[in-house]
Amino acid sequence: MVHVPQCPTCGAAFQTEHQGAPGYLNQQKWKQMNQSNIVAGLPIIEGTSLDETPSISPLAENGSELGGDGTSKKVLSEEGYKLAVRNLEDPELRAIFSGESLYGTVDPNSVSGSRPDPASGSSESTNAASFDALVAARLRRRAEQGRDRIVCQRCHTLKHYSRVDRPWREDTVSDPRSLTFLRYRTNLVAVVVCDLFDIPGSLIPHLGEFIGERHPVILVANKADLLPKDYHEERLKMWFKRFTKDLDLNIQSIHLVSALKNLGTRELAADISERRRAGQDIYMVGRANVGKSELINALLRISIGGSKHRVLASHIPGTTMGLAAVPLRHFIKALVPAEGPRPQDRQASLYDTPGVFSSKSITSHLTSEELKSAICSKRIVPFSFILNRNQAIMLGGLGRLELIDGPDRVYVTVFTSVRPHFTNVERAAELMKRLERGERTILQPPFGDAERLKSFPQHRVALEHTFEGLHRQHATLDVAFAGIGWIAITGQFPTATIRAFAPNGHGVCVRPPMMPFEYKKISPHMSAARKTPK
């Protein structure tokens, strides 16, 4: 059985049938991939675009053909060799194999467009060996420079245009049982990545049941660059630990990092190197869109010559479609010593696994364009507001929070990139009904034509919670909207009741306050809200 190559940036197997789907290659790229296989001595991969590709058997290192059992050898005919050389589209490779431009000890005039036979025993066998060595060195140098990487059409579109040509939900993995293969691996270190801006929504409950409870785990909370600059790292780690009890994992350490800004990645790399034994593979595990691929790229950026081996990372969930492997030898100085990998590490790799998407995330209802405006991409500036009784704060059409009983007012601090809108409860319900009818409103996202607005899920009650206000200036609890952000509630009062709405009634929870000291005091004599950023 022939192993179909994978896209080096997303891990999807190459295919030629479904345009726009992961792994798709057009005819030109598919032919180029097979030409690379011929040069490397690998078998041709059959596909829908090989009608015009000559049927040439795989080549062994000495240029002979391999039979089906891998033992019988026949010398490639002169005519077949010239045909293969002429069909090479890369001018540099064509020059190497035809002898038009060679550097080193091989005389171009002695090659004359044909490959010498090493088995002939003539003086040309020395030139043949030098020829093979020169070709191997040239191909190896091209591969190291990243010039020979063929990526699928989906990855090319994502990288250069930041979009996908079909609904992104079709390509996501939503079942954590897809990670159960890790339970049966015996020699690995798991790096579990979550989104610090989406806790606990970006954690996979009881993850140990799927990947195994015995593997050493390093827990990484990514996107720390989105938090206010003055956050206290140690206090934040203590707050974060309370959510790790239900993971059932053998957690060795916790790191707060920013893969995009390279904050904390050197400390993480040093911790991985210290805890990892020789020969162990590394697996990046976590929810979709938490930054696993970007974290791999961050580790490559701090490695010597690692940047050219980067994997694809984007704002669209489900970018990684298969198990994408990056050999550890590309992480020199970051994960392996500067003098090179140990002998046991020559076959070891760092694997990027497909993210497990949560159907309860509010972002699951958004298009790729709406994701850009809903997902926070720069440092958040929290703003505090007054929320009166029977008043609602609306985060576009993605969620709303109402104070339905309790004190006359509470103070809310908003941590989100979606512009909040304040109105009374009746007006909020009216705005949502207009949205359901396909009418354009101030609530964005979602945005688009009437059909798009009608297709957006209706708001339903996600939770109703009664609590006591504990402090005048410190937040008592957070109301978290999965994938969007959270609202911290501050005030001292005997009891208050809040009600939260979300699409289909999913993706909202209450939690202890993550950043309780970000509340900015507001006088009752001021206007109802502070000025929001433009």
Describe the structure.
The protein is of the alpha+beta class and 534 residues long. It is 23% helix and 22% strand. It contains 13 helices and 16 strands. The protein has helices at residues 27-40, 78-86, 91-98, 108-111, 124-144, 153-161, 208-211, 233-241, 265-275, 292-301, 368-374, 425-436, 450-455, and strands spanning 64-66, 73-75, 188-195, 216-222, 250-256, 281-286, 324-327, 349-352, 383-388, 391-395, 400-405, 409-416, 420-424, 459-481, 485-503, 508-511. Strands 9, 10, 11, 12, 13, 14, 15 and 16 form an 8-stranded antiparallel beta sheet that branches. Strand 10 and strand 11 (400-405) form a beta hairpin. The N and C termini lie far apart (59 Å).
Per-chain topology:
Elements: H1 27-40, E1 64-66, E2 73-75, H2 78-86, H3 91-98, H4 108-111, H5 124-144, H6 153-161, E3 188-195, H7 208-211, E4 216-222, H8 233-241, E5 250-256, H9 265-275, E6 281-286, H10 292-301, E7 324-327, E8 349-352, H11 368-374, E9 383-388, E10 391-395, E11 400-405, E12 409-416, E13 420-424, H12 425-436, H13 450-455, E14 459-481, E15 485-503, E16 508-511
Parallel strand pairs: 3-4, 3-6, 4-5, 6-8
Antiparallel strand pairs: 1-2, 7-8, 9-12, 10-11, 10-13, 11-15, 12-15, 14-15, 14-16
Oligomer: single chain
Structural class: alpha+beta
- The percent range for strand residues is 15-25%
Number of helical elements: 13
Order of helices and strands: HEEHHHHHEHEHEHEHEEHEEEEEHHEEE
What is the β-strand count? 16
What proportion of the residues is helical, as a percent range?
A: 10-25%
Query: Distance between the terminal alpha carbons, to the nearest Å?
Result: 59 Å
* Uncertain residue ranges: 48-74, 101-116, 523-534
Question: How many strands, what sense, and barrel or not for the largest sheet?
Answer: 8 strands, antiparallel
How would you state the average pLDDT, rounded? 79
Q: Which radius of gyration do the C-alpha atoms yield?
A: 29 Å
Which descriptor suits the 3D outline? globular
